[in-house]
Amino acid sequence: MGRSMTGVVQRSEHRDRPESDPPVLGGRLPVVGHLPRLLMNPLAFLASLPRKHEVTTVYIGGRPIYFLTSHRLVRSLLTGEAGAFARGLVFEKAAKVFGQGIIVSDGEQHRQNRRLIQPAFQQHKIERYVEIMRSVVEKRTSAWTAGQPFALNAETHETAVEVLTRTLFRSDLADRAADNVKRAFPGIVAGIAAQALYPYAWMEKLPLPVNRRYERSAALFHDVVKAVIAEQRKNPAQDDSLLGTLISARDQDNAFSEAQLRDETVTMLIAGAETVSTTTAWFFHELAHHPEVERRLVAELRTRLGDRPISFRDFRKLPYTAAAINEAVRLHHPNWFLSRRAVSSVTLGGHRIPAGGEVAFSLSTMNRDPEVFDHPLRFDPDRWLDGRTDDLPRSAYMPFGVGKHKCVGDTYALAELTVSIACIARRWTLTHQPGSRVREVPWTTVQPADLVMVAQPRRIA
């Protein structure tokens, strides 16, 4: 597991070992390629790809996708030679709504935007955001009805959207924005997922319901954000929101243009809400199946926090809570399909990747590799506390990515997860509705379908 990554990614003209084309997965069908097998059970399909070659060619229609099955190669891909790879297929399809936001942009544009964004996530900013996060979660969960079944993933999603709108926007603009964002979200999520998996690009232009809804939802999102930016620009001196920080951001002579402000705001709303809400829902799904983990988590929260509200400074006092979050992210990583595009012909792990070739990988399946994690499908927070993961290579677990495209809002996401879990777990016990069967459904993130739960007030021991 500790093999060197030196020379894993090489320009093909400077290779120092024999190359070969990546082997093609068997069972390819005419016209559609491997797409039917992928769609039938995406995570199982990706987990079944052979490991011995490290790179396997999978066809989506007539388009070859070079899937990496080695965490070593994935890290090398993400941290390798500058300019060797650009953003790939998934990000290209997301650009209709994200524009040139930070998760889509590349090169100098990405570097400049990242420098302008980073001050919005400094510690003193996160401390203020935590207060807003706690207020939103406490308000929403206080309205839950004991014994009444509800779709937890829908609730966590609405909560995440409200948290983001209240940290992003001035308070007087947040409510209106939140309602429109919630309305547009389903069409955007379905559209990105569908267009990334279309076997042929011309299908994006068909008047299919999913395509038309994607276009309408993206337009609504953009209109809402543009209106809020215009309003917030009127009183910049009184604006300490996340968006206010972006509006006033300066790096040497650079500042955000109107289009860049819109794109970065849209990106934060969509990417932030999707990942955090999905992880929170999966966390309580696992907690309901593991009463001993729940007991230890609640005991730590009560011992370390007492009766007072959680604050940013409490996070370091909650090692078991942090380990349980880490384990939820490992077992249910939201990113099941990410990609990069080779700028020119390269060698990757001894295999030729042509210029323009799509290289894809799945953090969801990598985090369940039995060669890296013992009992990988077991929810076991202790693996992060008892030394079992101390010697993992850096490539084995990359919860927020690595390299130049590492998630710029990782501290914000962890803060929101910690606050949400602490507020809910201290007040409520969540159990699955009898008869519900939770399934993993990969869309833009791996969603917990049919996650219906029942909340009961937690008893004071």
From TrEMBL:
SUPFAM superfamilies documented for this protein: Cytochrome P450 (SSF48264)
Keyword Iron part of the UniProt annotation: yes
Domain of life where this protein originates: Bacteria
Keyword DNA-binding: no
Region annotation (Disordered) ranges: 1-26
Pfam family, one: p450
Basic and acidic residues bias (residue ranges): 11-20
Transmembrane segments: none
Gene3D superfamilies: Cytochrome P450
Keywords per UniProt: Heme, Iron, Metal-binding, Monooxygenase, Oxidoreductase
Coiled-coil annotated spans: none
Record-linked InterPro entries: Cyt_P450 (IPR001128), Cyt_P450_CS (IPR017972), Cyt_P450_E_grp-I (IPR002401), Cyt_P450_sf (IPR036396), Cytochrome_P450_Monoox (IPR050196)
CDD domains cross-referenced by the UniProt entry: CYP170A1-like
Family: Belongs to the cytochrome P450 family.
PANTHER family attached to this UniProt entry: BIFUNCTIONAL ALBAFLAVENONE MONOOXYGENASE_TERPENE SYNTHASE, CYTOCHROME P450 FAMILY 4
Name under which the protein is recorded: Cytochrome P450
